[in-house]
Amino acid sequence: MKDYTQDFVELIRRAATDLPADMENSLHEARDREAKGSAAESAFDTLIKNVEMAREKSTPVCQDTGTPIFEVTIPVGIAMRELTGQIRQACAIATEKAYLRPNAVDPLTGKNSGDNTGEDYPTIHFYEGDEQAIKVELLLKGGGCENVSAQYKLPDSKLGAGRDLDGVRRVVLDSVYQAQGKGCAPGVLGVAIGGDRGSSYVKAKQQLLRPLADENENPELAELEDRIMDEANRLGIGPMGFGGETTVLGVKVGTQHRLPACYFVSIAYMCWANRRAQMTINLNTQEVSYA
Amino acid sequence: MHKLTIPISDEAIRALKAGDPVLLSGTIITGRDAAHKFLVENYIKSDSIPAREAELYETLKGLLDGGVIYHCGPVVKKNDEGRWEFVAAGPTTSIREEVYQADVIEHFNLKGVIGKGGMAGRTLKACQEQPAVYLHAIGGAATLIAQSVVEVADVYKLEFGVPEAMWVIHVEDLPLIVTMDSHGNSIHDTVEAQSKEKLAALLG
Predict the structure, then answer these.
(1) What does A183-214 look like in DSSP terms, one character per residue?
(2) Sign of torsion over alpha carbons A28, A31, A37, A40
(3) Sequence spans of domains, chain B
């Protein structure tokens, strides 16, 4: 198999030093909704200026370059272990080039590996696809917003949340309230309903890869996404928790089958710097494209 | 716009109110989870200061007296001359240091703490007594903030790893907002209380 290490480095550079266009546009729209001269407006001005500067200088949008999460789709016959090796090598090179901060810490010794590789680090998930192409989606998930992510077990009597979509709405709004500005609001909420405790968080994070404009195929879930977005913004937490009109920039809900005994709702809170990037390697032409 | 220069006087701190924008200049130190744990365990809560850490203690006392600590784990690189540079340097979430912060403020006579997301009651009380302020940097604005870092003067405890080390940096006109003042006001408390009421209304 060809060595794609440098292509992966470029994917990481793009994810770390720029924001997807829909995210950047949403910051501009949010800025215009805030009161003139407010701390919220000024915070958005700073965020927008920072993104422009990071792109120009090719330096990280945020110093917490997060956990790199690679979602990789490959056709039959591609060696997963070899590709994994290339991705890990790319993480080390990207760290050397200061696109990534060294972020992999041994939980027992506290020692930072220094190159963003370690035990089960970075996160890589493989899927099999039909096309003769390697498709890679990369999400850089920061630690501050990871700390305010939450998982609820329904029913939740304190929040009056039963095992239905209104119960989901209630716990998601509670998670936004609990997060306040600590996860670098305004956030994007990846929500998963169902699954077990582990699969539920994975599903929630996958929702963060959806473009903001992506409408849920399920009309009930589409309505839920809109309603949570509207109500979360009525909480008035605002950017950085300074108070303001915009507390979340997007809500994306996914589902998976659950055990009869369990009804989990997981909220993967993503900061305003929802750094996602895509790469496609056409295996017939060896052409590499990014989005 | 208030301009603050380190060392900061008590009068300058008392003049600040929650909501005020500030431009900070001078020498500050970064310190987050590992650094705060280290400071408290070795210098504040220990019966005697370990001999191997005594020299660093004197250095830090000098740097922090009337000074400011920044909750930040930067992206750094060495330039062609072999000197460290800050590439990206936004704030990290401050609340994790709540268990340590009041002790560190009091022991080292800190006048300010920079971070994001705000802190809780014990720190707010320490700000009133010291006096000191909590200065909010814009979370994630890492490349922009790094432009205010004009020089990396030194680094201590690099063995904690790049994000957790204590970096001594000269900053010029670092843009910040006072969100917890020395008069007991916290924007974080206000926003939380207001959003709690709104949540209760939405949950009916």
Answers:
(1) TTSSEEEEEEEES-HHHHHHHHHHHTTS-TTP
(2) negative
(3) 2-203
Six token digits for residue B112: 């300010």
Q: Using CB atoms within 10 A of its CB, is residue A261 exposed (0-12), middle (13-18) or buried (19+)?
A: exposed
As its CATH architecture, domain B2-203 has Alpha-Beta Barrel (3.20)
CA distance B196 to B202: 10
B172 three-class SS: strand
User: For residue A116, which residues of chain B lie inside 8 Å, CB to CB?
Assistant: none
- The residue ranges of chain A whose pLDDT is under 70 are none
The CA angle B46-B48-B52, to the nearest 5 degrees, is 100
Closest Cα in chain A, distance from residue B184 (Å): 17
Question: Backbone phi, then psi, for B12, in 5-degree steps?
Answer: -65, -40
pLDDT score of A1: 87
Q: Are B30 and B145 in contact (CB under 8 A)?
A: no
Residue B185 clears pLDDT 90, i.e. is over it: yes
The chain A residue lying nearest B146, using CA atoms, is A63
Indicate the domain borders of chain A: 5-15+61-142+275-290, 144-270
Instruction: Give the model's pLDDT for residue B157.
Output: 97
| Contact residues, chain B, for A110 at CB < 8 Å | 34, 160-161
- Look at phi and psi of residue A110 and say left if phi exceeds 0, alpha if psi is from -120 to 50, else beta: left
Interval A7-64: pLDDT, tens: 999 999 999 999 999 999 999 999 999 999 999 999 999 999 999 999 999 999 999 9
Tokens of B86: 């800050």
Between CA A245 and CA B190 the distance in angstroms is: 15
Measured CA distances, B74 to A108, A250, B56, B137 (Å): 23, 28, 21, 14
Cα B177–chain centre separation: 12
Predicted complex ipTM: 0.93
Mention the CATH class of domain A5-15+61-142+275-290: alpha beta
